[in-house]
Amino acid sequence: MNEQNRPDAGEEQSVAATPPAEAGSETGGPTVREQERPGVLQQILGGSALMSVLAVVLALFIGGLLIAFADEDTREAATYFFARPFDTISAGLSAMAEAYVAMFRGSVFDWQAATFAGMVNPLTESMVFAVPLILAGLGIAVGFRAGLFNIGAQGQIIVGAIGAAWLGFAFDLPPVIHLLAAILGGAIGGAVWGGIPGVLKARFGANEVIVTIMLNYIAVYLISYILKQPGFNPGRTGQRSPAVSPDATYPLLVPQWLWPDNGFRLHWGFVVAILATVFVWWLMERSTVGFQIRAVGANPAAARTAGMSVGRITIITMVVAGALAGLAATGQVLGTERSLTAGVAASFGFDAITVALLGRSRPWGTFFAGILFGALKAGGFLMQSLTSTPIDIVLVVQSLIVLFIAAPPLVRSVFRLPDPDRRRRRKADTRTTQEATA
Amino acid sequence: MKLELQGITKVFGSLVANDHIDLVVEPGEIHALLGENGAGKSTLMNVLYGLYDPDDGQILLDGAPATFRGPGDAVSAGIGMVHQHFMLVPVFTVAESVALGYEPTGAGGVLRLEEARRRVREISDRFGFQVDPDARIEDLPVGVQQRVEIIKALSRDAQVLILDEPTAVLTPQETDELIRIMRELKESGTSIVFITHKLREVRAIADRITVIRRGRVVGEASPTSTETELASLMVGRSVSLTVDKEPAQPGEATFEVEGLSVVAPTGTVLVDDISFDVRAGEILCVAGVQGNGQTELAEVILGIEQADSGSVRLDGKDILGTGVKERLRSGIGFVPEDRSTDGVVSSFSIAENLVLDLYDTPPFARGVSMSPAKVTANAEQRTEEFDVRHTSVHDPISTLSGGNAQKVVLAREMSRPLRLLVASQPTRGLDVGSIEFVHGRVVAERDRGTPVIIVSTELDEVLGLADRIAVMYRGRIVGIVDAVGEDGTPVSRDVLGLMMAGVPLEDAQQQAAQHRSVLGAADLGEEQA
Fold first, then answer.
1. Which residues contact B489 (CB under 8 A, 6 or more apart)?
2. Is B256 a residue whose pLDDT tops 70?
3. SS3 letters across B194-253
4. A:B CB pairs within 8 Å
5. Do A23 and B215 touch (CB under 8 A)?
6. Least CA distance to A10: which residue of chain B?
7. How far is A42 from chain B (nearest CA, A)?
8. What whole-number distance in Å separates Cα of residue B231 and Cα of residue B210?
9. Which of A3, B7, B74, B245 is most open to solvent, judged by the fewest CB atoms within 10 Å of its CB?
10. Domains defined along chain A, listed by start
């Protein structure tokens, strides 16, 4: 509740009073009963793209301040701050600039590279990192739209990875079919792991947050158990499975014959991510399943009254979410790593939650949020190696983004923006008064 | 104490909720504040009770200006308020509730509940409230809970008592009792501001009537004005208060309920062995005070609630055991009691809400692929047909007023060929214009030969719409009566009221003959006039 909503807030605490908008009852304004209190989730997801952009800007700014404070030159200059304050400020600014310039060079365009391929290579690296983030982020986003907090992308990625890798190295199939089979294996692995909490919630009312968190742990121990089994453990290290058959890996997106010596790692997994984004858009906006998912997410009681099965939709949503997370795993197993490793999921499952939040759970929003986070990851490495700034600052920036996304009124007050809900309501009210006077 | 409000103005954003409202309440006067939902009555009273700061204007008490920083100031100045939804703690006793906030304490801050008990008893005896100070709030009927709220206000020496829609939750007999209490209070010099949109009550009780429309005082009226005069003043145009309908032409009983029971997981029997039927082309109203099993009955018919025993047959087929979707598709139209929770998805557009039940059937979908163009076209047509006032069918339904949102629900539920229409509280919270519209649609559906069940707690609505009336009390049907008797006289309001309190039909008729309630008498008076 922000400042402008005070009258409503007061009403709620003390008295069943008429909220201001009620007076527009006849023609325009929302009434007491229609004015539901939006849940936290809906509040976060209901925001505009502008809010996401501003959250990123604000997070990068504060991240910049931290870079400046952590910089040794800046701190040295700060010892004589009162004598020559400008020294501190300029040292801080240059530290900040160096770090972010390095990050840009590492993630978008490196003008100091020797060849043109080398110059655009950072952008392709960002896209490589973005593949699992986009796919898992889409899975989380679908869950959010259904009102489900799916924290289990991490576990779903791991199980998807096991499925994809096993089909990838243990079988011998014709080229294209082998790849498709391995991709499908990843999707099914994730779908199974996502379906479990879905079924438990639909049948027994088990809270999906708790179940998915617990399934994450189970998945972590499952993969280390599997990596110790004979067929999965060629090096006897318990860390890495046999390599996936070349037939089952994603081909490079920019082949050598087209652009010799390009050195890009970017693979067809990125195309899968684009296709998945289009699919999720169609699913949510144009299909009957998505219509039900959105209805159940926004108001399960009304969905049930209209004849929808809330339990069925919960299961379907979690299966779809799991399958998308499983596809995210293929980006690693069939794309970059090309075998199953204990750390295959890295922190993708958790970063994906941030990606979905930043993308407001919209398909294309999630897509671009995934690219941004991929860029932060890719840029972080070069920043760490070129400047004294530790890569952990990337984590700080990511966390700050979440923080600002979760607190839209905070961002609005920093940038002195009006409350969009308020504005919409006013517009409706103005209409009312106009009609009233007419 | 004389209370004066001068030029009270309260603005929310660009919305003027109160526009220079003047109001004078003389000592010992019952002053009715009459207006539709959303006219600004409650805002005005919240200003008076110190909950809102007025943007302009002032409050005078016995001629002296007063400013209230909060309800505490208002209470100490002698203003008491009984809210529509009571502010009581269910597990407290009456004495504890009355003491809450102003606890009488002895040495060392020890609570002296005996003092509170004594005051409850004193006030209760003085006005004949019959309230036991040691009863627990949750065990008391709603009417008595309301008296506890009044005692609470009086125990703080309220000289002006604001009653916000006090009769909304009461049976006619309880309303009668409240009217008696209000008159007692008036005798003792307490002024009462009585907020309502019910014309009948206003005429029966008020000394003076101030009518508010769209935040402005549009006139004063005396209690001798007719209901039609008051209604047109309130709405701003002439309205018909009675539902225009021909006598029913009922056919076969196509909907039958037999021995139906619903037991809550806690073991409470919500619906207790109910049997009735509804004939094609008739309206059966299920009357009763809120919370006597009507909601559950309606939900069992749709299948949201599970029955524990009995049968529900539509066109001869038992529908228990089939899913909600199947029942909707087999021709049950369902208007839920709580529109915002069960009726609409408020973040969805008007168009999407209009296909909430048929989204996956042609022409709105082919296979799993939906056709947005068809959904939009359907919305344009339905909103036109049901006169839903809107800007765009793609706007979220939350931008609509209650009346228009309810029209959307009706438009959706009546767009399928119906074999049965079940509507719970179809006009709750609606303005007079929308009520007329909804009633007209319901009667039209009946005339098309559909059996109709209306669940309503508003006796006026029941009397206006019903062909037959089933009265529910504690999960049972107390009796079913014809709305118009064989001799052509409508069923008496008093009889229904007694039945709503659990008195069987014949006893109710006897008792009603002996004692006529205030509102019942007003009914008769009107007929004679």
1. none
2. yes
3. EEECCHHHHHHHCCEEEEEECCEEEEEECCCCCHHHHHHHHHCCCCCCCCCCCCCCCCCE
4. 190
5. yes
6. B51
7. 9
8. 12
9. A3
10. 44-107+389-426 (no CATH), 129-383 (1.10.3470)
Strand order in the sheet with B3-12: B15-25, B3-12, B56-61, B64-66
Count the helices and strands in chain B (H runs, E runs): 18, 22
Q: Nearest CA of chain A to the CA of B497: how many Å? A: 27
Is residue B425 a contact partner of residue B336, using CB atoms and an 8 Å limit? no
- CA dist A267 and A277 (Å) reads 17
Rg for chain B (alpha carbons), in Å? 25
Average pLDDT for runs of 10 along chain A of length 438 = 38 35 34 40 67 90 90 87 88 91 92 90 94 96 94 96 95 93 97 97 94 96 92 82 92 88 90 97 95 94 94 97 97 92 90 92 94 93 87 89 84 77 43 38
Instruction: Label residue A194 exposed, middle or buried (CB < 10 Å: 0-12, 13-18, 19+).
Output: buried
Partners of residue B356 in chain A, C-beta under 8 Å: 295, 302-303, 306
Percent composition of chain B: helix, strand, coil (DSSP 3-state, to 5): 35, 25, 40
DSSP string covering B28-62: T-EEEEE--TTSSHHHHHHHHTTSS--SEEEEEET
Question: CA geometry: angle at B332 spanning B307 and B449, to 5°?
Answer: 125
Query: How many Cβ atoms are within 10 Å of B61's Cβ, its own excluded?
Result: 16
Quickly tell me which residue has 């200006």 as its tokens: B65
Angle between the N-to-C axes of helices B518-528 and B172-187, in degrees from 0 to 180, rounded to the nearest 10: 100
Max distance between CA atoms of chain B, in angstroms, equals 78
Q: Report the Cα A205 to chain-centroid distance in Å.
A: 26
Residue with tokens 């986070």: A373
∠ at Cα B435 (B334, B502), nearest 5°?
70
Task: Tell me the three state secondary structure of residue B359.
Answer: coil
The model's pTM is 0.80
CB B205 within 8 A of CB B32: yes
Structure-token pair, residue A404: 């600002």
Contact A429 B14 (CB under 8 A): yes
Closest Cβ opposite residue B369 in set A286, A295, A428: A286
What is residue B255's three-state secondary structure?
Answer: strand
Domains and CATH numbers, chain B: 3-235 (3.40.50.300), 253-331+417-491 (3.40.50.300), 344-415 (no CATH)
Q: What is the side-by-side strand order in the sheet with B191-196?
A: B79-82, B160-164, B191-196, B30-34, B208-213, B216-221
Q: Is the Cβ of B38 closer than 8 Å to some Cβ of chain A?
A: yes
The answer to whether the CB atoms of B399 and A424 lie below 8 A apart is yes
C-alpha distance from residue B457 to each of B39, B463, B490, B500 (Å): 23, 11, 18, 10
Banded pLDDT at B380 (limits 50, 70, 90):
very high
User: Scanning the structure block, which residue is given the tokens 């829609």?
Assistant: B165
Return the axis-axis angle of helices A85-107 and A363-386, rounded to nearest 10°.
Answer: 120
A399: its two tokens: 């966390």
Q: What is the ipTM of this complex?
A: 0.80
| E-state strands within B248-403 | 253-263, 269-279, 283-287, 309-314, 317-318, 332-335, 365-366, 369-370
B466 residue type, one letter: A
Would you say the C-alpha torsion A99, A100, A102, A107 has a positive or negative sign?
positive
Counted residue by residue, chain B has a size of: 529
Of the candidates B38, B30, B60, the one whose C-alpha atom is nearest the C-alpha of residue B48 is B60
Structure tokens that stand for B430 in this block: 């609606």
- The H or E element containing residue A309 is none
